[in-house]
Predict the structure.
Amino acid sequence: MPSSADTIVAAATPPGTGGVGIVRVSGPGAENIARQMLGSLPEPRRATFRQFNNASGETIDAGLALYFPAPASFTGESVLELQGHGGPLVVSLLVDAVIAIGARRAEPGEFSKRAFLNDKLDLTQAEAIADLINAGTSQAARAALRSLSGDFSKAVTALTQQLIHLRLHVEAAIDFPEEEIDFLSDELLQQRLQQCADAFARLQDEVRQGRVLRDGFQVVIVGKPNAGKSSLLNLLSGQDAAIVTEVAGTTRDILREQIDIDGLAVELVDTAGLRENPDRVEKEGIRRAREALRVADAVLWIQDATDEDHGTIDEPLRDGVAITVVRNKIDVNGAKPRDNAVNISAKTGEGLDALRQKIKALAGHQNLGEGAFTARKRHVHALERAAIHFATGTTALEEAHAGELLAEELRLAQHVLGEITGEFSSDDLLGRIFSEFCIGK
Ligand SMILES: Nc1nc2c(ncn2[C@@H]2O[C@H](COP(=O)(O)OP(=O)(O)O)[C@@H](O)[C@H]2O)c(=O)[nH]1
Ligand SMILES: [Mg+2]
């Protein structure tokens, strides 16, 4: 890809007062800007103490200047970095001086976007920069660093290579029908298909966990009024966050609490009890409860173990989200625990540890080892789509001996995987990804 013609500038340090304020310039004009502001071009990649002057020769500040000639820089373009004093006025005067000589203000993420367009990073690595900056736990930061160093991209590339090999095999068989290669009964093809299916499953698992590392795991608590939902939220979060009374319909809005289960960031969502004939306020609460259900990562259905009627949950859930039944109030005489449920008492705390373990298991957290990398919803979805193409192709082969269909689905799967690393990407997607970055990154 060609590099952009214009030169961009932004403060690389956050707004406000600090020890050092850094202004970064990238583009073909960086060299001229360096000469004008510093008097001469500093030696490449060497910190040089200089006065920083504006276009009329007035000194604004003094500090370290760093010059990286293209293509050996973060963006792949010529980059100038001015490290001055960290006052908001000084920094903004420096930015203005650079603009006056010949640059424009950078858009959010524009430096990273240029690095991507100049093949310095692929898309998952660019995204990992933002994830590292925004990481909320040390585990998430480590995982983002692993994505940044290319671990995620390598896993996607390895799967892509497998798809390419399969395609070659299938297309060769299609192209030479006269040799009567019955590629259906070909043992090697069956093996490769199986290996590819396994690789898809493994990567999907890793990516789902990477998504949880980045975004946290959202657990929605639902059930009939008075089942003990708010009591459970309070107990798990160790706070009196929700009002608990014996009056049905106490909780009328969504309540969210962040908890940490052995390093797993969990967002607990307490909801209004689902029931018939609520009043107007409660009705709105129930609507919000149903909305929360639709985006939940896991659902805890709290049932009063002393009650027979638990209502129903008919709201559609996201793919792969299971409902976990939690039988509450097992401290009460005559309560009926169940084998296939998590049995707890939100009053005495009995069964709470088992519930915590269950939540961890639902998040796949037991496997979150050293090799984890961060991933995003977009990656999860792309992998799902690619896996569907692969499965459709495999079925076409098994059921209809349709080698052409398999080849076509393999091609589509490969294309969708390319969207993850940015090999195939639309301007629209790039715009969405980089606009989430901060300015100056
Ligand atoms: N005995 C007993 N009472 C409970 C338990 N959990 C909740 N309760 C009581 O059940 C009532 C309803 O609880 P609450 O948490 O407000 O239910 P919610 O409507 O589902 O949020 C309150 O009076 C609680 O004290 C439990 O495990 N054992
Ligand atoms: Mg409640």
User: Anything to note?
Assistant: The chain has a mean pLDDT of 90. Residues 223, 225-231, 244-246, 250-251, 273, 328-329, 331-332, 345-347 surround guanosine-5'-diphosphate (ligand 1) (CB under 6 Å). Residues 187-215 form the longest helix (29 residues). The radius of gyration is 28 Å.
